[in-house]
Amino acid sequence: MSSKGKVASSVAGERINSELFTLTYGALVRHLLLDLESPEEVNKQLDRMGQNIGVRLVDDFLAKTNTTRCRNFKEAVKTIADTGFKMFLGIDAKVTQIGDKECKMVLNDNPLIDFVELPEKLEPLSYCNLLCGVIRGALEQVSMKVEVLISKDPLKGDERFELHMKLLEYINEEYPFADD
Amino acid sequence: MSQRGSVLPSLVDRHILTSKTRNDVGVGAFAFLFSEIVQYSQTRVSNVSELERKLADVGFDVGVRMLELLVHREKAGKRENRILGILSFLHTNVWKNLFGKTADSLEKGTSADDEYMISDHDLLVNRYISVPRDMGHLNCGAFAAGIVEGVLKSAGFPARVTAHSVASEGLSRPKTTILIKFAPEVIERDEKLGS
Amino acid sequence: MVCYNMYIFNRDGVCLHYQEWSRPKHVKDGAGTLVDDAKMMFGLLFSLKNVCTAIDPTREVKRPLGAPTPHGEGCSFRSFTTDCYKLHYLDSPSGIKIVLNTSTDLGNLEKHMWQIYSNLYCEYVVKNPLYTVGEPFECEQFVQNLNKLIKSLG
To answer: Given CB atoms, is C31 within the 8 Å cutoff of chain A?
Structure first.
């Protein structure tokens, strides 16, 4: 991504204590479990909500980092890892494998899961599914249709949190109205 | 929640015991999460007061857990038993931990003895908001009211807590006032404990 | 100097917001209705960008001339001036398009356009919990601050 000014290598914008965020997210997941009853439905809902967040968040990101152009999947992934996670969640992420259409990203920390342990009956719950939606929603706004999956999850016994991203296609700009 | 057979130290213990603000999140992350909670809640309710109730319920959950964390950490397990003590704990410690600053004021209600008000000129959940006309008096501060109610309830001070927008001189935007009306037994107990 | 009106579109051509400060020539005498007016404006932006991209002499493009380009690619113009008015334009990589029509005596407003996007649209619309993405908005805080900014231009 190219920028008008300096890309914020330090973190742009006001910060707040992660606990408000973490506890609020936890409260949301609990309410979704009450409302929707099945963990699978909650996964879907978290993904949808994440997507909506991504669609909003991308504008904030572009504005705060003065980004005026997004080129390709590789660059986008690097930007998410180097700047995106830091800016929004205050954490470092590292791209561990990358190709033109696929990558893996490891988070060194994840504020979403502070204070969380999954009881066995919630085994199917993908607690952080929101994150997948956020990345998908954000990238879709800048022309990249991607698939995002949680490939490693500390809540399921893995040591680190890892995301697997795959580029499906670039979206072209099309005239949205039928010609009169 | 039940323990899983994991080799890792319990995440819960690990984080309660480490000092607070181990990392900070961008204010945007919370704003977007909160927005989505509001958007989702709107699909589950049929009117403005139900929406406020729903937001307060989510806040309540946050309040209960916030109290656990703070009591653990800041007060070494000691609990408040007086009304003024718990109110100042809310106004100062809870607010600081949630919003990075103390609330702007803590006042006693003028009309009733069992009412208190905590006000904030720039409450995070109301900062970016514009309420559309068809939603009338909706106040998303209901979420913060829910947090306050959750803290109070689990500290043993049941109360009815509501959020209100109050226009005030010299401020371009109305401040948010959290109105706390304590249950009668709380007032009685406090009176017995004397001054 | 005069600011006439402003449009904000999303990538799907939805006019998210329209604001008018002065419009001596009524819509009725132009496109007819505000809906058609917005559609015409969007069509102008879309075609102009495509033409700008097609005749771009600077960059090697792998796709054939006139073929659809990904969002955020191609050449976005920043303003154009006619005999009667000047159109200032910002096209974000996410497809948010902000158009401001002013009198021809206004200089470069790129900074202000970016301010409208980053300080006003992103703060008071995108972060407004009651705003549903993709729908037209009338956010009071956005409008108030926009009016302030527009006033400061003169």
So the answer is: no
